[in-house]
Structure prediction request, 347 residues.
Amino acid sequence: MTAAQIANFIGGTVEGDSNASVSRGAPIEAAQSGDFTFLDNPKYEDFAYSTKASILLVNNEFKPVKPVSPTLVRTADVRSSLAILLKIIDQANHANGAAISEKAHIHAEAKIGAGTEVGVFAVIEQGAVIGKNCKIHPQVFIGKNARIGDNCVLFPGVRIHFDCEIGNNCILHANAVIGADGFGFAPQKDGTWTKIPQVGKVVLEDNVEVGASTCIDRASLGSTIIHSGAKLDNLIHIAHNVEVGHNSVLAAQVGVAGSTHLGNSMRVGGQAGFAGHLKIADGTQIQAQSGLASNVESPGTALFGSPAIGYRDFIKSHVVFKQLPDLQRKVLDLERKLAEMMNGKAD
Prediction:
């Protein structure tokens, strides 16, 4: 792409050689000739004067204090412009080629919308319905009566079990599993466990993204629901009958036990865990590795620790925790001195 083409894609302006061309992107500190890069954080500005990139994306407000060798493409918002540019590249990288591979297995009673691509060794079972302009990569499995909306991308190894529903504009990364059985067993008098059939489903609403190897279990009855705009990282487990609110983001290795409802616009750090049957208020922010064992009723609460407490309370407590050995020595010393004083009075 040339600088002029990039500026056209992102609604920017060129400062320098509009015919400068690039074939790949790179970090500003490592970029070479033929690369494009970007500057959106002032602390990296020094690299703007030393980078060997051919094209540099900058904000309109950027004012160089030294000579800059790359062609500049100015834009109102570097991060948003970068997202547009990388999406164009991503679409080129993940094109499947032939619309429907001859090596895919598609049941005669399945329906596939116009413009949808299906890769080799994909399996689409009876009654499944797939919308328009989807990309079904190789080795994807779509079970009986599953429904997938328009403009979805399913990367290799994705498994969507029977009756599950995927909305429009969803992205499911490699080996995500949608609709495996929820963890339901009834204890017996002899110490064994009887499996409780899980006959519900999973519903992903529009604009949901699910990371690689993330598992979302089907409901025992009803639906496990991931509401619109939610983003789930890799290696997350969502148990049966959980709800994840609109536009909430969950980092890697989060675990949510059954029937817990996460509010809208939540931010959850990696390895955080939720006990079952909780209700967590909208806008809650949970630090990594925290454990939630009780409801959160106040919107916008920031929590840390296990069991999680208020973020500022945890930070203050952590400072004290690190001082406990010294505090213990001081207490023992004070007890010794007090004992000596009491013994002196007794004499």
